[in-house]
Structure to design on (223 residues):
């Protein structure tokens, strides 16, 4: 574990929408699936599924949206299409993402708590070239509940061997913010243009305009 110069024992990053610009890609993939299957895509589906675990969102797609097949079949189809996007290098890295992770790794432990399945978390880590500095990574498919429940963040803190209340989470989505707050963590948010969090939620976070603002001085000011 690095010798920390930070008031926090660890910084835990979300992945989708925080480090990689994949939220819109998830929606594109799902909408293309709906078009192929000739079923309507509800406007509320995308924000409803943001933060859900694989079991939760695949069940939602099978039962609420109406995709044919079992939730596990819907999940496998969706994840395979997303993995193809990663392998093709078409998932953009957000500005300053790699640099922010590397800088936080110099200050203390770093984790990832994501709603993506493990195969996509690991693909994202490879794309960012940060695998060697991530001390723990957790998918909500490994815990009982997805975001906004705190399970993923709590498990990541447990694997890092740190007190959740001494962790800072870096998020972008409403359900992600709720998850980290429920875990007792301080939250930094870089709001996206794509389904941004509500003003009420942002009022409970330190709001940044970009990951390049994530500095040692900022962490000292939050603590």
């Amino acid at each position: 574990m690095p010798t920390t110069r930070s008031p926090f024992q660890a910084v835990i990053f979300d992945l989708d929408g925080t480090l990689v610009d994949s939220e819109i890609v998830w929606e594109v993939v799902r909408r293309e699936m709906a078009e192929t299957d000739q079923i309507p895509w509800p406007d509320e589906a995308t924000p409803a599924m943001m933060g859900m675990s694989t079991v939760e969102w695949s069940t939602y797609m099978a039962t609420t949206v109406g995709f044919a097949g079992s939730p596990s079949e819907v999940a496998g189809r969706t994840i395979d299409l997303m993995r193809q996007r990663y392998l093709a290098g078409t998932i953009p890295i957000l500005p300053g993402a790699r640099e922010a992770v590397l800088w936080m790794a110099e200050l203390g432990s770093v984790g990832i708590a994501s709603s993506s399945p493990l195969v996509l978390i690991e693909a994202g880590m490879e794309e960012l070239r940060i695998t060697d500095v991530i001390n723990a990574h957790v998918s909500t498919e490994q815990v009982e509940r997805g975001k906004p429940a705190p399970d993923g963040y709590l498990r990541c803190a447990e694997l890092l061997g740190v007190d959740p209340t001494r962790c800072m989470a870096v998020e972008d989505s409403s359900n992600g913010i709720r998850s980290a707050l429920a875990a007792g963590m301080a939250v930094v948010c870089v709001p996206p243009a794509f389904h941004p969090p509500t003003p009420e939620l942002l009022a409970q976070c330190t709001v940044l305009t970009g990951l390049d603002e994530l500095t040692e001085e900022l962490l000292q000011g939050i603590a």
About this structure: DSSP finds ten helices and six strands in the chain.
